[in-house]
DNA sequence: GATGAATGAGTTTTCATTCAT
DNA sequence: AATGAATGAAAACTCATTCAT
């Protein structure tokens, strides 16, 4: 992957995440990435396939995070890790998350959200911890995190430390 | 408000909610509403002001729901009502919710989300019920509901009955 | 002629003269004249016919001025009157002149410029005064005035007193 | 500058000069120039900037003419050259003049009319020739030429030979 | 790999005009 | 006489995409 090809990808991620796929023209991407508009099409064939590539590239980052959770043996730690995920997004990952949630509400392109493996592994953890209805429990926790993310990503920064500890308390985590 | 003017508003709500503001052209709205494109601009001046009008029109509906919660005196019932809100969206309101959440992530236009009054009233309820950190508690509940909504609105219909009762259980509601 | 009909005419003159026929929409005229757009068409049938009416209305004013020159018996006074014409445009007539010259360069509508009678009467005056080539002489004087007008109307206010006396000097007028 | 880009410029000059900026649509220009409408905007960004470019392109031509007058040492010849300017417009320059005068009355875009340098150089000539009030004299001559131009450009072709010689006579030029 | 030139189909918006009341 | 509602056609401009080099 040449420098310019990568530059296009990163610029597209940045713009799509911040302004939405529809609001960003290929011309704008080209300008920001300091490449010709034609090059975008040489490398990615169409705007939608560029989005595809961006999403795929983003998913690389997510995969790592998910794996880290799924492979955690201790159920409490596993849940803790999941919760921590949302509360300490690395700056570089912020764009990925923004795009992810935008695409969930505006499914321009099919994305793999890793929702299912997360749900499975959390259900398993709750079951091991003898929670009633572990599947439902996992679902509810995931919703809470989703809701938190949506709010954070739309710009409202909360005092997340208190939130996190209170949430962990609910599951007797520290 | 003439029939056609209202028709434009409803059509716009429908299309904006389902496909997003950017993806819907005024031509498409006009066609679906069976009016001339020019009429949209006669009545609403610009596409963005049409969105404004749509949002305002939508908010009318929300106001009622929020009032119903805020005015509830019994704290337990108040929280229950809030939870129920998300779990039994009237079909006619579905579009409003879709648009609301789309706009939250893509703030094309400033919307009043009623988040603040809801938070205040829920905090108050939790305080009355002697919960620790009632504000945080309210916040977390709201996130859970938000997360649920996001998932529901992006098309994943869950077995919501179990979810609802489990969630209510957490707050010792029935 | 009703008040509103006249208001439309005057507003149209004002706008056409200042911004040009093409740049002024019937909507703008209606707004400024505080009448409905439809009324313009009730009274004048079309935008171009409104211009026609405006021009005709303007010509009323000109006719008077021209007559005043043509009927002047003394040749020197006649020429003097013509020169004075340009140098003391009444404020109310300014719009008429603006429109006149705009239409001369952009003949949207056929206008009667009174050029011919003026030329005839000036030629006659110069002949009486024994000028060589009185027709050409008249033509040249008319050009000078035209040029002066074009410059005045495009906003460049000159120290016209000196100009006038110098010009009159050339024809031994005072 | 590619062929098509130049073609657009020339076509625009032609149409703007003959029909006026407002009356000529970009669609018409594109059609006449046998290019896509989009290309106009690729090359010139907006209709008004196209006019800008046209004017700039035109001014190139004028600059030459003006220089030729200003650099003339002999005062009589200098004035003669100025007068001749108007009386023998090269066919290719006609469009430039039309546009120039149209824009003077309808200042859609700021144009450099070279009025000032011409006035200075003519004043100087008249002073050298011991005319009284050389500045005013220059002004009057310029008005006469302006007036002549306005009339010629609005289509009234006069027997200009006689006019020219009579005008020159006034300044004892041949 | 990279670009500048070019375009067809679309975008939002404005236009002059008509019609029912 | 006067208006508000309504429209077809056109306006300027943008879009994603192709192609020759």
Question: Helices and strands in order, then pairings?
Answer:
Four copies of one chain form a homotetramer.
Chain A: H1 3-19, H2 26-33, H3 37-44, H4 47-70, H5 75-87, H6 91-105, H7 115-128, H8 134-153, H9 160-170
Helix pairs in contact in A: 1-2, 1-4, 1-6, 2-3, 3-4, 4-5, 4-6, 5-7, 5-9, 7-8
The structure holds a DNA duplex (21 and 21 nucleotides).
Give a concise summary.
In chain A, 75% of the residues lie in helices and 0% in strands.
Which key phrases capture this entry?
homotetramer; 174 residues; mainly alpha; Tetracycline Repressor, domain 2; 9 helices; elongated; DNA-binding
Describe the structure.
The structure is a homotetramer of 174-residue chains. With 174 residues, chain A is mainly alpha-helical. Chain A has a single domain, classed as Tetracycline Repressor, domain 2 (Orthogonal Bundle), CATH 1.10.357. Chain A is 75% helix and 0% strand. Chain A is built from 9 helices and no strands. The longest helix of chain A is centred in the middle third of the chain and has 24 residues, at 47-70. Chain D binds a DNA duplex (21 and 21 nucleotides) through helix 3.
